[in-house]
């Protein structure tokens, strides 16, 4: 599987570390019910079949986090962008 890094160009997936679904956001630890929210955040994840935006870290390249749109049924990658806005990306 080749991942199109916006900085380095197309690279083999072995250069990347996979984190998972890009949608979940970390709960506020000071909010009421934080313990239940953290349990859900850590342990309860969907496993959709089809297009999914995922987080990948280019460990053997530019060392940037990417959001990669990948179809979980076919592993077809439709594109990749930096996970942070370009102005925040340190090169």
How is this structure best described in words?
This is Sarcosine oxidase subunit delta. Pfam families: SoxD. It comes from Ancylobacter crimeensis. By secondary structure, the protein is mainly beta. It has 1 helix and 6 strands; from the N terminus they run βββαβββ. It has one helix spanning 34-43; strands spanning 2-5, 9-12, 17-21, 51-57, 65-71, 77-82. The chain is globular, with a radius of gyration of 15 Å. The mean pLDDT is 92.
Write a concise keyword list for the protein shown above.
91 residues, Folate-binding fold, two-stranded antiparallel ribbon, globular, four-stranded antiparallel beta sheet, 1 helix, 6 strands, mainly beta, 36% strand
Concise synopsis of the structure shown:
With 91 residues, the chain is mainly beta. It is 11% helix and 36% strand. It has a domain at 1-22 and 49-85: Folate-binding superfamily (Folate-binding fold), CATH 3.30.2270.
What's the SSE blueprint?
Elements: E1 2-5, E2 9-12, E3 17-21, H1 34-43, E4 51-57, E5 65-71, E6 77-82
| Quaternary assembly | single chain
Overall outline:
globular
The CATH topology of the domain at 1-22 and 49-85 is given as Folate-binding fold
CATH class category of the domain at 1-22 and 49-85:
Alpha Beta
Look at the structure and name the CATH superfamily of the domain at 1-22 and 49-85.
Folate-binding superfamily
Helix content: 10-25%
Poorly predicted regions are: none
Distance between the termini: 25 Å
Averaged pLDDT: 92
Q: Gyration radius, to the nearest Å?
A: 15 Å
Q: What is the architecture of the domain at 1-22 and 49-85 at the second tier of CATH?
A: 2-Layer Sandwich
What percent strand?
A: 35-45%
Largest sheet: 4 strands, antiparallel
Number of helices: 1
Q: Total number of β-strand segments? A: 6
Strand order of the largest sheet: 3-4-5-6
Structural class comes to: mainly beta
Q: H/E order of the elements?
A: EEEHEEE
Pfam family, one: SoxD
Organism: Ancylobacter crimeensis
Protein name: Sarcosine oxidase subunit delta
């Amino acid at each position: 599987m080749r991942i199109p890094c916006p900085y380095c160009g197309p690279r083999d997936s072995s250069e990347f570390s996979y984190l998972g679904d890009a949608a979940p956001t970390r709960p506020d630890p000071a909010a009421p019910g934080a313990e239940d929210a953290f349990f859900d955040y850590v342990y309860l994840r969907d496993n959709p079949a089809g297009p999914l935006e995922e987080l990948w870290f280019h460990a053997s390249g530019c060392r940037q986090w990417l959001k990669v749109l990948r179809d979980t049924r076919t592993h077809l990658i439709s594109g990749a962008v930096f996970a942070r806005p370009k102005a925040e990306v340190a090169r």
